[in-house]
Automatic annotation (TrEMBL):
It holds the Pfam family ABC_tran. This is ABC-type quaternary amine transporter. Signal peptide: none annotated. Residues 4-241 form the ABC transporter domain. PANTHER family: OSMOPROTECTANT IMPORT ATP-BINDING PROTEIN OSMV. The keyword ATP-binding applies. Its EC number is 7.6.2.9. The lineage of its organism: Bacteria, Bacillati, Chloroflexota, Ktedonobacteria, Ktedonobacterales. Keywords: ATP-binding, Nucleotide-binding, Transport. Belongs to the ABC transporter superfamily. GO terms for molecular function: ABC-type quaternary ammonium compound transporting activity; ATP binding; ATP hydrolysis activity. SUPFAM superfamilies: CBS-domain pair, P-loop containing nucleoside triphosphate hydrolases.
Amino acid sequence: MVKIAFHNITKQYPGASRPAVDAVTFDVPEGSTCMLVGTSGSGKTTLLRMVNRLIEPSSGEIIIDGTNVLEENPIQLRRRIGYVIQQVGLFPHMTVAENVRVTADIAGGWTRQQLNTRVDELLNLVGLPPDEYRKRFPRQLSGGQQQRVGLARALATDPAILLMDEPFGALDAITRARMQEELMRVQKDVQKTILFVSHDIEEAFKLGNQIAVLSEGKLVQIGSPVELLARPVNDFVRQLVGADSILRQLQYLPVSDALEKQPEAAIQNNVPTFEAHATLLEAMLKLLETNAPGLKVQNNGSSEPLGYITLASINREITQTRTQPAEHIETKL
Ligand SMILES: Nc1ncnc2c1ncn2[C@@H]1O[C@H](COP(=O)(O)OP(=O)(O)OP(=O)(O)O)[C@@H](O)[C@H]1O
């Protein structure tokens, strides 16, 4: 089911020579994560902030659950939408518990007991044991822990939608990877619809069910990470998603993309079996590790092979993806 639908959404800032967001149309399915990527100034933050009406669109519509956000009271709208940004913005004089509670408190309708239970639930959810962290102040937390509190706070009113604007951008690589894992774990439990702005294509591949690529306010392509990698619509997307990187392709393309149906007999006999959803990299490592001439690929639980994978078929798939013609456009990376 579609959760957020953008219809020709446009934002023209006064005095600007072109729209910051230009007639963008796409859907975000319920419970999925859509990553917004693109060069600096391509309109990602503007697009995100129009969803909770921190920025008002110039034209077009954003429909959430069938209702145009412009017809909603902005304050009520923001209660239904969690918002996490890079500068976490915790209140320095409030404890962690008070910081998490504050949004739910403002939204109202909770008893003190319910609020306390909710805070503990959320702190557990984001991996901060309440007994240890409830009473700390933000200055007594690391950057990553502060981001976790920010995430807990955004989840406090149990919003169906989360908007995240470079939430992990200021963290070191290791903490960032941990936070991404944490978010994936939380998302498994809570199934929010997430719109996530990122400058980090690795992050977009890791977290996104869909990736929307913006350039100069326009939506250039939207698709799953594998779609973008295998079929970038032009050189801009190809470069942005690193479709020319052999490692990226090996890491993300599934073995089902590189099957041989009728390989020679030696490959069909006595070779190890392999799962269809595994990546080309995993298949290649297995081939190197076992020294087998091929792998029999089958779906979980089925004995019928879907096909076979060999170093040659992996090579063919990668060469083909790399040389696919793409429309040429100027790239400004
Ligand atoms: N309040 C504003 N008034 C006028 N122009 C603005 C305003 N905010 C953003 N812009 C312009 O709109 C365009 C898109 O900005 P936006 O912040 O949405 O891009 P972005 O893709 O999020 O960029 P970045 O990746 O650098 O954060 C830019 O050209 C920017 O200069």
